[in-house]
Structures are given as structure tokens and as C-alpha cells.
Amino acid sequence: MTLIPLQTKADDSWQQQLRDAIRSPAELAAALGLEPSRLGFSAQADDDFAMKVPRAFVGRMQPGDADDPLLRQVLAGSAENAPHPGYSDDPVGETGAANPVPGIIHKYHGRLLMTVASGCAVNCRYCFRRHFPYGENQLSRREWQDAIAYIRADTSITEVILSGGDPLVARDDTLSALMDALAAVPHVTTLRIHTRLPVVIPDRVTPGLLRAICRPGIATVMVLHSNHPNEVDTTVAAAAGRLREAGVTLLNQSVLLTGVNDSADTLSRLSSALFGAGVLPYYVHLLDRVRGAAHFAVDETRARELVGELAVRCPGYFVPRLVRESSGEGSKRELTPRYPY
Ligand code: SF4
Description:
Elements: H1 13-19, H2 25-32, H3 43-48, H4 55-58, H5 69-74, E1 104-108, E2 111-115, H6 141-153, E3 159-163, H7 172-183, E4 190-195, H8 197-200, H9 207-213, E5 219-225, H10 234-245, E6 249-255, H11 264-276, E7 280-285, H12 300-313, E8 321-324, E9 333-334
Parallel strand pairs: 2-3, 3-4, 4-5, 5-6, 6-7, 7-8
Antiparallel strand pairs: 1-2, 8-9
Helix pairs in contact: 7-9, 11-12
């Protein structure tokens, strides 16, 4: 681990970039040099889940390409409006019994999720939490204390997973206070952060953030979320480098998405780009069956074939585990094919 510098000029630019995210189809079309009519934007889909795209992410899209794989992930499109049986607002069972106190989602043994922030830097159209009642999980100071008390009372919990929304939308002082509270719980040994922010706004990885999330005695693991090799440019690699230098273990999870990354070549290039940035491919998820996202689904048979092709092309550490999450199950279900066939 190296010493973390006190300040850089980029320390708060990420907050401005959050505020400046593109929300209108006209602006998105203009940024890409496209006629607005070519975008396929749907106001109905946007009403259901508002479009939001940071400019740093738009900058990695191919100008003039209405089918750009990064654009497809963020555009509120008409395909979202068609009803599909089996697709629901809560596809993995995060409300009810799994939500014992506000801000806590406790489904698996030994670990639980804290929803630290109610928003994200980007609104991914396939997100399984696109209908999650974040408003009911905004923590007051009292509820925050209740959530920490819940963790303290259950000595089986060794890992706390910060999720959201995107937990890195939270300010550094908020994250630092949370880390202080968790560090005071003797049985919590690992902090895991699931985030897309270092990918969509790499400037989020500031010295202030590193000071907030790195503590002696607690291992910090960050699971990035990127789906396509074009997402991983030099700015993302530099952000990953800053995290690694601070001692953060970096993994990546993807979602298998039709029209985005449903080819072995794309998955192979994604793994290569991630590895080059010091990030290990960890999971590739089958799409959670959330209402509005059915057009992204890749069926299980095809998903197994893709991961099998990837295993033939690449070293084992380039091959993420293929998983599906189902409501009520004690862990994710692994679907990675076994070799040889
Ligand atoms: S960043 Fe993650 S939680 Fe936020 S919308 Fe995208 S997939 Fe969902």
C-alpha cells in the first residue's frame, strides 16, 4: 500500500460531473451527432426510469452509431414498454423479509448489503433495482444507527457490502463515518463496494475517497461493473491503478446483454481490457427478470455456450463465473459450464 496524497485538482470535479449528466434525448443525440429521431427514445420508458448518462461515458460512445453498445445500455427506448410475463418489479426478492430494517438487505449467510445511496451516476436500463423503493430506504440518522446495531448484533456477519444505488454517489465524509462505525464492529473483516462510478466517472476515485474507504484491519474489495470493452479506456485504467495502489482488491461483474456483449469476441476483449487495468473478471450475470428489460435477455443455453467459447479462447483467469440470482435462494446459482464438454 502507498501513501495517499492529500488533495488533487480533481477532488470534487466528480460531483459537478454527476450534476452535468445528460438527461434529455436531444442533448444525447447532439452529443453523438445523431438525428434525435434515430435514437429511438421513449418518453414512456423515461417516465418509468429516468434517463441519466454522465458525459465521460458518452465520450466513449461511437459518434453517429445509434446501435452503439454503450448507448444501448443507457437509452430509454420503446422496447422497455412491452409487457413480458415473468418480468416483475422485484425480480430477486429484495423487499419484505430480506429487508429487515431500512437500509439493510440480508439474504445470504455471513454477509449483507447496506443501501448507502439512493441514486446512481448512470441509470442502466437493465438494472434489477430500477423499481426498488429507494425512498423507503433513505436512512435518517436514527435508522443509520439501527442498521449498524443490526450488524453489531449478528456476529455471523463478517462482510458488509455497500450497494445502492451506487454507494460511491455518497460523499467522502459519509463513507468515512460509515467505515468508522463498521471498523468498530469486531466481526466485520471485509468491506465490499459494488459500484459503476469508477467506470462511468473515473474522476470519482480521489485521494479523499481512498482515505474514506481504506482502513487498517479491514480488507476493501471493490466490484466494478462494466459490460463492454469500450467502457474500459485509459481514464478507467488510471482510476483502477489508484485504487490498487491504495490496497483495494479489484473485481468486475457484468450482465450478459443482447446487443451489447453477447459474443465471445466482445467478452474476450472485455476480459483483456479489465486484466490490462488490473481488474479480474469475477461474475457475468444472466439478466434479472426486471420489468422493462426483457429485450436484453440472453437465454441460459446461449449464455453457457458463450462462456464455454470464452474458456476455449482465453486463460482461466479471463473467464468470469456465469451466475443467476433467484428470489429466495441462499446464494447465486452458478451456471458456468464444466470442461471438457
Ligand atoms: S449503476 Fe448499478 S445500481 Fe445503478 S442503475 Fe446501473 S446497474 Fe443499477
